[in-house]
Design goal:
Rossmann fold; alpha/beta
Length: 471
């Protein structure tokens, strides 16, 4: 399998190169050159456990030796609190796919536990080191740190918007004091963090000299690992209900999680509809309703991981929507960067995309959904999951069971849960251990030059030792 840039001005490369590069030199995102049709194989995989299913799907996209790939998957799944990694539970009329049983209690663990180990293997094979950049709106940072802390050949630099993530999300990152972990508290928004990350990775000379890579969902391996739980959940709900086609309701801000579902559909999984759910930062919901993708000011909400106005993975969708035409992608992204908006014409049926339906849940709707779930179903969702549940309820179809993705444990957002229920918020021992621990972070302005200076000061010259305990 080869990978091509969405902007078409970088040569096709292999899987390992795409993983280590993250972003393409031309500023585009890597996508598989072809997407296989796996409809025949999917039926044979219905009885596989999560690890076996992950192996069958992922080996179609990567050139890692089969036994090594199996070992990577097994190791990545070992740190989850439940042996099945994910589970689907009935909540009223919905089926909730719990993705938060990993070490940092968020869905990002599923991909980043795998990616950290994959990085280590590829770097050892190449005899090199890698300095990873990550921009986080809340959960990616801690999950990425958990995946690479102490690993030889890797340093990680996490940019997060100071004061715009939950206190527990911040403590999950800043209490990690390993020498190869650097947390940068940016005086700005997540979009500022993401803009600077992309700008640094687009500087080819800097990227090569500092051996920079990316762990955000711009990295294709993140999307690949997330495809697996869509297939797993669809099989489980089909066994439970007898219905062949399902819907997925996905709370999203950066379009990475729902993009994995879109790829699962392209592989042949019988997904009837992808229900895209946003909070007040509704750029994606507006696009799928109107065809116009237009950014605005970032609103602060109860679901901070979705407080985004420029979704990185949207470019991968555009590439497919434009028939793989990189010139059309370049033109559209140039328009967006210049004007803050772009437009995609509707399809032959007049819809922007018949697979997607979109909705928004504001603060009051989010609180009401948390309250309703607790009172009616005895189930407590976190505010991101509540956004997805609230929108999902407006799109129910008795013939197509809806699977709603639960992206984080509610204990990560005690203030929102307490506000909704007027009861003591849920707790989790992983988070309780963070209280009173020392923290470390460096405040930086939302200025790419300041971040570049920090990297220059903390990344040794090529050839220097890059062990997990390195400075």
């Amino acid at each position: 399998m080869r990978y091509v840039s969405t902007r078409g001005e970088s040569p096709p490369i292999g899987f390992a190169e795409a993983v280590l590069a993250g972003l393409a030199p031309d500023g585009g995102l890597y996508v598989p050159e072809t997407v296989p049709d796996l409809r025949a194989e999917l039926e044979d995989w219905a009885g596989l456990d999560y690890r076996e299913l992950a192996f069958e799907i992922m080996r179609r996209f990567c050139d890692v030796e089969p036994e090594a790939l199996r070992a990577l998957i097994d190791e990545a799944c070992a740190d989850f609190a439940i042996p099945e990694v994910v589970r689907t539970v009935p909540v009223g009329e919905l089926h909730v796919l719990e993705l938060f049983h990993g070490p940092t209690l968020a869905f990002k663990d599923i991909a980043l536990q795998f990616l950290g180990r994959l990085f280590e293997r590829l770097l050892a094979r190449a005899g090199r080191d890698l300095n990873i950049l990550a921009a986080t709106s809340g959960d990616t940072g801690s999950a990425a740190i958990a995946g690479v802390r102490g690993r030889p050949g890797i340093r990680i630099f996490v940019l997060y918007p100071r004061g715009r993530i939950s206190p527990l999300q911040e403590r999950q990152m800043t209490t990690v004091l390993d020498a190869n972990v650097h947390n940068l508290a940016v005086e700005g928004t997540f979009d500022d963090c993401q803009r600077m990350l992309k700008g640094l990775l687009r500087d080819t000379a800097l990227k090569d000299r500092l051996r920079l890579g990316a762990v955000n969902s711009v990295n294709w391996a993140r999307i690949l690992a997330q495809i697996v739980y869509y297939v797993h959940a669809a099989f489980e709900v089909r066994r439970r209900t007898g219905r062949p086609r399902v819907r997925f309701a996905v709370p999203t801000g950066n379009f990475g999680d729902i993009l994995a579902g879109w790829y699962a559909h392209r592989l042949g999984l019988p997904i009837a509809r992808l229900v895209l759910a946003t909070n007040d930062n509704d750029i994606l919901a507006r696009f799928f309703r109107t065809g116009r993708y237009a950014s605005g000011p970032v609103a602060r909400t109860l679901s901070p991981s979705m407080d985004i106005q420029a979704a990185s993975n949207f470019e991968r969708y555009l590439h497919a929507r434009f028939g793989g035409d990189p010139a059309a992608v370049r033109a559209a992204m140039a328009t967006f960067e210049r004007e803050g908006a772009l437009r995609v014409p509707p399809g032959p049926d007049g819809a922007v995309d018949p697979l997607f339906t979109a909705g928004t849940a504001d603060t009051e709707a989010t609180l009401a959904e948390i309250r309703r779930c607790v009172e009616d179903d005895g189930y407590c969702p976190d505010p991101h999951t509540a956004v997805g549940l609230a929108v999902a309820r407006r799109r129910l179809d008795p013939d197509e069971p809806t699977i709603a993705l639960a992206t984080a444990h509610p204990a990560k957002f005690p203030e929102a849960v307490a506000r909704a229920t007027e009861a003591p918020p849920p707790r989790h021992p992983t988070l309780e251990r963070l209280h009173g621990m020392p923290t470390r972070a460096t405040a930086v302005p939302a200025d790419i030059g300041a971040v570049r200076d920090y990297l220059e000061a903390h990344i040794p010259a090529e050839g220097a030792a890059a062990q997990g305990g390195c400075p």
